Amino acid sequence: MTKLSTGKGISGSAKLDAVIALVLIAAAVTLPFMVESRYILGQIVLALFYATIASQWNLLFGFSGIFSLAQMAIFAFGGYATAMICFYFGLNVWAALVPGAIAAMVFSLVVGLACLRLTGVYVALLTLAIAQAMYLLIVTDTECFVMVGSICRQFTGGAVGFARFGDLGMRTLLKGQWLVGNYAIIATLFTVTMIFTYVVVKSPIGLAFRALKDDPAYAIARGVNRFQAQLLVFGISAFFTGLAGGFYAAHFQAIGPGVLSMSQLMFIIAITVVGGLGSFWGPLVGTIVLVLADELMREAGEFRTLGLGIIIALSIVLMPKGLVGRIGDLVRFLRRRSPRSAMGPQENAALTAK
Questions:
Q1: 240-263 pLDDT per residue, tens
Q2: What's the N-to-C CA distance of the chain in angstroms?
Q3: Do 161 and 255 touch, CB atoms closer than 8 A?
Q4: In the 3-class helix/strand/coil scheme, how is 291-304 assigned residue by residue?
Q5: How far is CA 258 from the centre of its chain?
Q6: Of 189, 232, 180, 177, whose CA–CA distance to 66 is shortest?
Q7: CA 178 → CA 113, 182, 209, 253, distances in Å?
Q8: Which helix (H) or strand (E) is 129 found in, with range?
Q9: Three-state DSSP class for 169?
Q10: Using CA atoms, how far apart are residues 218 and 203, in angstroms rounded to an integer?
Q11: What is the mean pLDDT of residues 173-196?
Q12: Phi, psi at residue 169, to the nearest 5°?
């Protein structure tokens, strides 16, 4: 995404990324004052969750080439771990969020170890099988684990899941404006996740990830340890995905097996593909487009899914590099057509000196 400049200072692409980030932060800060509808603000919070999950799947597949389909399983693991810590140990949600994310990371590392000898579609099949096994274990959990009053609760909550185990504290602190407080927390989570992802992608570690994706044999020959790199990217992606799962459970005060549905996973993949696989801003752009399209087609009934499918299919056919890639191509085309690009090196230098 970022090409290092030959001169001193920060590259032009890095400056552009910084400007985009500042504009987005300014927009995020002013958004609660511009949006009066609680429903719209709630949908924006949900979109931030989608963008966070998609950004980490993009790190895993778009930048590292690991085609894992366990992303929603890791998200659910983080949410369930947070809810279960609160429910069984009586901890505050804030005290359970990091342990829940660490539990999701450990789960992901186990999945990563299982995938080490596999590549391509075999990784996808194994991770999908793990996610489906997790779903079946939860919904078929009917054995009584603990009595809550006169109600028997399963260890995993069964098909019902967990509810009312705690929240982020904004309902008590801000009363009727609690949703604005939750929005600020989730927006901060997304910002921190994106900053950390950017640092990873631009670091030598990120270079190793991309090398393993583009040419594994060459990368290994140059000294990149595939075992360590794969486990590392699994762990990094899982921590923030699991943390998002914990915040999701706390925001809605509930977590159930529905988050493991295939439709949720496909929506996350579609977000990344439409936005631009392997591009830093792709997940955010894809989230905006697909969530907005989904909302506009809410009244379309059974044609809603069909409409989303058409949008995804057209994006894949007409924009293989996604919207971000298409925008990048357009910018480069305009630069080539600009009068300044037609000048010679001496004319450009003279114009710059003025």
A1: 999 999 999 999 999 999 999 888
A2: 31
A3: yes
A4: HHHHHHCHHHCCHH
A5: 18
A6: 232
A7: 41, 6, 40, 13
A8: helix 121-139
A9: coil
A10: 19
A11: 94
A12: 90, -5
